[in-house]
Every structure is written in structure tokens, then in C-alpha cells.
Amino acid sequence: MARLNGSDSEKLRQILLRVFTFKQFGMLLSDALDRDLESISLADNKEAVIFDVIAEANRDFWTDELVEAARKVRSREASLYAFAQEHFGLGIRTSEVSDAALERLVVKTSSFLNIMQWREKLAAIERQVARISYDIAEGIVFGTGFLVGPSALLTNYHVIQALEAQKAQASDVRVQFDYKKLPDGKVDDGRIVRLSTDWLIDSSPYATADSEVDPVTLPTTEELDYAVLRLAEKVAEEPVVLNSSDTNAPSRGSIDLGLSPAASPRAGTSVFIVQHPKGDPLALAMETQGMLKANGNGTRLRYQTNTEGGSSGSPVFDQQWKLIALHHAGDPDFSELHRPGYNEGIPIQLIVNLLKKRQKYGALSA
User: Fold this and answer.
1) Strands (DSSP E) found in 215-300
2) Phi then psi for 121, rounded to 5 degrees?
3) Which among 80, 171, 185 has a CA at the least distance from the CA of 134?
4) Mean pLDDT computed over 73-93
5) Dihedrals φ, ψ of 343, to 5°?
6) What is the C-alpha to C-alpha distance for residues 236 and 259, in angstroms, rounded to an integer?
7) Are 174 and 192 in contact (CB under 8 A)?
8) What pLDDT score was predicted for residue 100?
9) What are residue 188's phi and psi, to 5 degrees?
10) Strand pairing class (174-177; 271-275)
11) Measured CA distances, 310 to 51, 130, 138, 156, 280 (Å)
12) pTM assigned to the model
């Protein structure tokens, strides 16, 4: 999808300024586009907010969605109709729609997705998620992690807790990228990377409340169950060669924590988790209305998307592939007749805040 140039962006801004109030524009983003205004702009005036929204839409290739949503809400606005037609070939005037049109938006928390953009983002994420495994006396520890810098890998603290308890050595840990099942049914063992000698960049323990069915206290912002590991190689910078004839291979890349939404997703929004359940090849679990709610102090997000042992440390995304959480646990009630009610993750913004507070955030890009 083409981006708007500077003059066209300004033209769109002037149209939106004229036809929407500040409150109406926020409702447009929330109700029609399922986007949280606070995660895009913290400005307190309409002019700056609309400027920020157009800039992000242009950068992330959803300007057409913004224009079409605005056109539908203001269907009698000729300038919006003309802009949509000229730049995106969008728009049918309300007067031209037959009374027999039966299509309806049924789920307000779901939106239409750009297929190519969605697929490309998923392909990039596939390269950045890895299976973590190592042996201890009781068996094999499995987990999932994902790149957040050239050699920085984010996972759960409890995934590597056995290392700190000296049940295993850091040199025993296998970080396995591209471990997935191929279309012919065979499994690609991918690429194994080891930890650096100075392997722990930062960590935060889990809370006692995480394992309690009826906790008395809530986890604090210092109990976020994360560990940032340093790999022995800058694997994010290496090309990922899919076949011997691939002369223009993309780099593996990493997930930018700075692009995470500042606010919690609304209940009923989609939740996607890229993971290694049970230590198996890479898998995607998704629930289009997966988000349930945050806990009492916002230190945990609860959702209905499925996970299994080995999924700890997985990245949790919304339907636009924005990273929203670090998956870490499920419903702690394992009584025989209890039906599991949720899985939960740590809001990424809290992890970013703690890394910055400890002056560790800059180490991710080293």
C-alpha cells in the first residue's frame, strides 16, 4: 500500500480537522479501527493528535483503513469521498448503496486486515522466535523466547530459574531458531545458538500471587517474571537463507519493544501467541476475541488464547502484530473439576519501564 506524501498528508489532516471533533476522532479510532489513541499520541489537542495518527498510519500502511473508516462515518462529506477515490480507489456514496445490501459489522473489536502486510509481519516474527531448552536431573526444561535486540533474547525468569539454582549451566542452554514443521511434514531443526559468557542482562522474579488461586496481594511492578538473555552471537543481524538460490535473504531482525502499545488492549480484542508449546515446532495460537481483562493493578493481562508447557516466554500480539505482552502462565487452579478460565502475560510496557529504571534498556541494542 502506497504512503501519502507530505502535501497529501496535510490535505487529509485538514479534512479530518474540519469534519471531526476531538472526541469523535477518538471514537473513530476506537470503534471503527480498534486502535487505542493513547498508544499512538499523548498530545492534548486535536491538531497534534490527528497529525500523529496520520504519521503512524502512513508509517504502518493503514492510511487507507483510516480514510475509509472516516468516509463511512461521514458518508455525506464530499471531500472525504473524493480523497478516498483519488488516493485509494475507495468509497461508494451512501445514496448509491442498494437497500438490499446485507453486510454488517458484527464484532466491533475486530477489523479488516491488509493480507500482504499481515503475512509479511508474521513471516518476520517467525524468524525472531526461538525454542529454549536445556537438561536438568528431572528432565528437559522447555521455553520460548524472542529477539529484542541484535543478541538480546526476552523470555520468562522462571524458564531460566534452574540456571540460577545451579541445576544446569548456561553453556547447556540451546536457543533454537527456525525450529518448525515444513509443508511436507518434515521438521527443520533450524539454527542453535548458545548463551554468551555474560549471559544475563536483567531479570525480574515472578510473584507468589502468580501461583495462588485466590491471592491476597497483587504482583508488583518489580515482579514481572522476565529475563533478558545475551546470546553468544548477534543473530538478529544475520541473513536467514531459505534456500541455496536465495541471494537476497532478509536479516533475522528483532522485535522493537519501543513500539509496544502504552495502554492495555480492550476486552474482546484479538490475541495471537507465537510459541513452542510442549517444546514442539513453532506454532501460532489465536483467538479473535481473546482479551479478557487486566488484573487489579494492571501488572497482568488475561486472555483466552491457548498455550501449553513450553510456551512460557512467548510474545503476545494484537491482530495488527503489535507486541502487547510476554506470556508467562495460566490459570493456577488445577483442581480436578475446574475448567481453566484464562492464560496471562506481563504487559510489555511494564517490562520496558523497569528496564529503563534499572538503566538496562540500552543494553538491548548492544
Assistant:
1) 226-231, 271-275, 283-287, 291-294
2) -65, -40
3) 171
4) 74
5) -115, 165
6) 17
7) yes
8) 44
9) -90, 120
10) unpaired
11) 43, 11, 15, 11, 8
12) 0.75
The H or E element spanning position 88 is helix 78-88
Orientation angle between helical segments 63-73 and 6-19, nearest 10 degrees: 30
Average pLDDT over residues 209-234: 95
Distance CA 318, CA 288 (A): 9
Distance CA 44, CA 22 (A): 9
What's the full length of the chain, in residues? 366
The pLDDT of residue 98 is above 60? no
Does the structure show a pLDDT above 90 at 72?
no
Least confident of 64-68, 93-97, 131-135, 289-293: 93-97
Q: How far apart are CA 312 and CA 155, in angstroms?
A: 7
* Cα gap 286→166, rounded to integer Å: 36
Q: Provide φ and ψ at 166, rounded to 5°.
A: 60, 30
CATH of domain 119-365: 2.40.10.120
The three cell numbers locating residue 362: 540500552
- Please give the Cα distance from 326 to 127 (Å, whole number): 17
Contact 108, 91 (CB under 8 A): no
Q: Are the C-beta atoms of residues 71 and 84 closer than 8 Å to each other?
A: yes
Q: Kindly state the average pLDDT of the residues 59-87.
A: 83
Residue whose grid cell is 474482546: 268
Amino acid, res. 272: F
Q: Looking at this protein, which amino acid is placed at residue 93? A: R
Plot region of 114 (φ>0 → left; ψ -120 to 50 → alpha; else → beta)? beta
- Sign of the Cα torsion 353, 354, 356, 362 reads negative
Ramachandran bin of 268, using left for φ above 0, alpha for ψ from -120 to 50, beta for the remaining angles: left
Q: What is the dihedral of CA 122, 126, 131, 132, to 10 degrees?
A: -90
CA distance 311 to 246: 31
Does the pLDDT of residue 259 top 90, yes or no? no
Residue with cell 526461538: 130
Confidence label for 105 from pLDDT (cuts 50, 70 and 90)? low
Exposed/middle/buried for residue 301 (C-beta within 10 Å: 0-12, 13-18, 19+): buried
Under 8 Å between Cβ of 265 and 36: yes
Using the 8-state DSSP alphabet, how is residue 251 labeled? B
